[in-house]
Design brief:
It contains three helices and no strands. It has one domain. It has about 70 residues and is an all-alpha fold.
Length: about 70
């Protein structure tokens, strides 16, 4: 006689929600860090300082961008 045993692992609803919320929180953290590193205004300032382009026209553009962000 042969015995055949079937094992089935069932993910309960609470475990599924726990895993889903964990994955979503990790995605939110990754997107937050991506947003902090990929900031166009910050990139403009960085490259301007890197290449020593400090003129009045660029500084006025920076001031205008800051005023727009503050007024929002």
């Amino acid at each position: 006689m042969k015995n055949i045993n079937f094992y089935r692992n069932v993910l309960r609803y609470d475990d599924f929600l726990g895993n889903l919320v964990g994955y979503l929180s990790n995605i939110i953290i990754i997107l937050y860090f991506f947003n902090t590193f990929y900031n166009s205004f910050r990139a403009q300032v960085y490259f301007s300082e890197k290449f020593f382009i400090k003129n009045n026209a660029f500084e006025s553009k920076i001031n205008e961008a800051l005023k727009k962000r503050i007024s929002k």
